[in-house]
Amino acid sequence: MDIDFTDRVAIITGAGNGLGRSHALALAQRGAKVVVNDVGGARDGTGTSTAAADDVVKEIKAFGGEAFSHLANVANYEEVQDMVAETQAKWGRVDILINNAGILRDKSFSNMDLADFRLVIDVHLMGSVNCTKAVWDIMRVQNYGRIVMTTSASGMYGNFGQTNYGAAKMAVLGLMNTLVLEGKKYNIHVNALAPTAGTRMTEDILPMPIIGFMTQESVSVGVLLLCDENAPTRTILCAGAGGYATAAMFETDGIFLSTADRSPENIRDHWESLNDISKHKALQSGGKQTEKFVMKAMAHMQS
Fold it and tell me: Which among 251, 260, 252 is positioned nearest to 300, based on CA atoms?
């Protein structure tokens, strides 16, 4: 069965250029009504313009789709609320939210101004929080929602000169993990996309021959899956150059030390066993870690 978004309403932030534009077009081509959100600023977040978002709307309407643009700054909750209210007034619901908006203020940590650190956190993390908060109760009431966070390998694995960006991109995974639990009974699925593509965000990072492989459309194929009615939840989908994979955080089974044996020296001496990955698991909530350690303590008491 083909994935179809007829009668679904989607909000895509940062959709005037790059991946956001590609996501918006891909959803609209499969029938979604699309809100093209973009403040129209430069890569570092400076400036505003309606031109980029308006151009995407024109593209969508040219092939018979429905769309409108909105200039909301995702870091400003009141502006986000206005965007969602306009969407509700026009189409009566919000089914899909793709938190894609982002900026870069790259510098090594020693040279980074804290104002640049905060601004990147405000756009990537708080922007995702603001947009998700603005649609959350709508999705709860309609008993349906598909939310996509945009994370990055820079957050999951690190990237020199991107402490602010990496911190924000790892933080949205923590946001996702808890929203998955809170949204479960309301049929709200929350996932994350870890994309790599040739965009204005990566144009001076990746060599041109490589950028040719890193098409935005290949990433948007993955987004469509995460927005589908039968989408997974709590999944980090990695996508780039036609390659697709999932990422997850695993925890080793670990060790137990009795009260008498609890010392940093004994942890060090058992380091190999503590790091044994043969029984590692991806835990599904923070409580599962507590449960694991309590079970180890109870097993010790019974032995």
Answer: 260
